[in-house]
Write a structure and sequence with these properties.
By secondary structure, this protein is α+β, with helices and mostly antiparallel strands. It has two domains: 7-159 and 297-308, Ribosomal Protein S5, domain 2 (2-Layer Sandwich); 165-294, 2-Layer Sandwich (Alpha-Beta Plaits), CATH 3.30.70.890. Helix content is 35%, strand content 24%. Strands 1, 2, 3, 4, 5, 6 and 11 form a seven-stranded mixed sheet that branches. The chain binds L-homoserine. L-homoserine binds at residues 16-17, 22-23, 132, 134-135, 178, 181-182, 225, 255-256.
Length: 318
């Protein structure tokens, strides 16, 4: 059953790894992308906002391509689409912009044809496209997720974020591609470092699950990827080392960077001090950055209703 009137969906941004949980842990954030998808006589794109500037407006567009994989999987032919998009998620900064586009396209396309594919199937398809499950899992399911990927299938467990957990990010004014940040990683690591990360990631997962924010300062430490990526984001090593002394529960590179993420405890009110520290350290390295105070987003991709007469931008601003 194809919904001729079209569908409108909202997808959260995400942060991946949370320090030690490389390619494993993800958390959805209250920063969003929206996609409207309708059957059409010929394909047309409407891209809104500076974060989508320069993206293709023909059938090579990622959202169109991903939607077609859903139709092919479901045995449906729907070659012409009208697609409207807006995104508040900065591109290529480590806040899951590509994952939100993939998840949004899969979710919208599946909804458009009456949801023949399960959420688990969409997650497998999203992970196969993104190559790791952390960002796509958070964008699809919301909250905090821990996931494993065997190359074909992803298993996931969603964790409700602790009520007092908040997030402060510093988004440097330069882009860093995930492929470049992955090329910086070694092919092999020592058993000692592997044990270090397994233990810290496990403790972090347990601490988040049980609301033990007091364990986060220790649990967020990492030896698997951040030390090797530090030279790509000048100032990062000092921020990771000293953020807790300025009120953070812990700090990490957000995904593959360059955004730096601090987890905070809402009850401590340390954001002003921490924000000053982040901007000062980056500034000393000649890096300008934008800070954002965010929260974990408990919902993943959701359908929005289009009840009245109105445009795409009317609906999403409502
Ligand atoms: N886990 C991935 C990485 C996230 O750190 O390379 C990339 O968005």
């Amino acid at each position: 059953m194809i919904r001729q009137e079209g569908v409108l969906i909202k997808v959260p941004a995400s942060t991946a790894n949370l320090g030690p949980g490389f390619d494993t842990l993800g958390m959805a954030l209250n920063l969003y992308s929206w996609i409207e998808m309708k059957p059409a006589d010929s394909t047309v794109f409407r891209l809104h906002g500076e974060n989508l500037e320069g993206l293709p407006t023909d059938k090579s567009n990622l959202v169109y391509q991903v939607a077609q994989t859903v139709f092919a999987e479901a045995g449906v032919t729907l070659p012409e689409l009208e697609i409207s998009m807006k995104s508040d998620i900065p591109l290529t900064r480590g806040l899951g912009s590509s994952a939100s586009a993939i998840v949004g396209a899969l979710f919208a396309a599946n909804l458009l044809i009456g949801e023949p594919l399960s959420q688990a199937k969409l997650f497998d398809m999203a992970t196969a496209l993104e190559k790791h499950p952390d960002n796509v899992g958070a964008s699809l399911f919301g909250g905090i997720i821990t996931a494993v990927w065997d190359g074909t299938h992803a298993d996931v467990l969603r964790i409700e974020p602790p009520a007092d957990l908040e997030v402060l990010v510093a988004i440097p004014d330069f882009q860093l591609s995930t492929s470049k940040a992955r090329e910086a990683l070694p092919k092999q690591i020592s058993l000692q470092d592997a044990v270090y990360n397994v233990s810290h990631s496990s403790l972090l997962t347990a601490a988040l699950t049980s609301g033990r924010l007091d364990l986060i300062p220790v649990a967020m430490r990492d030896r698997l990827h951040q030390p090797y990526r530090a030279s790509l984001v000048p100032g990062m090593a000092r921020i990771l080392e000293e953020a807790t002394a300025h009120g953070a529960l812990g700090a990490a590179l957000s995904g593959a960077g360059p955004t730096l993420l601090c987890l905070t405890d809402r009850r401590k009110g340390a954001e002003d001090q921490l924000e000053g520290f982040l901007l000062e350290v980056l500034g000393e390295q000649g890096i300008t950055a934008q800070t954002m105070r965010l929260k974990p987003c408990t919902l993943g991709a959701v359908a929005l209703t289009m009840e009245s007469e109105g445009s795409f931008l009317d609906y999403i601003q409502a």
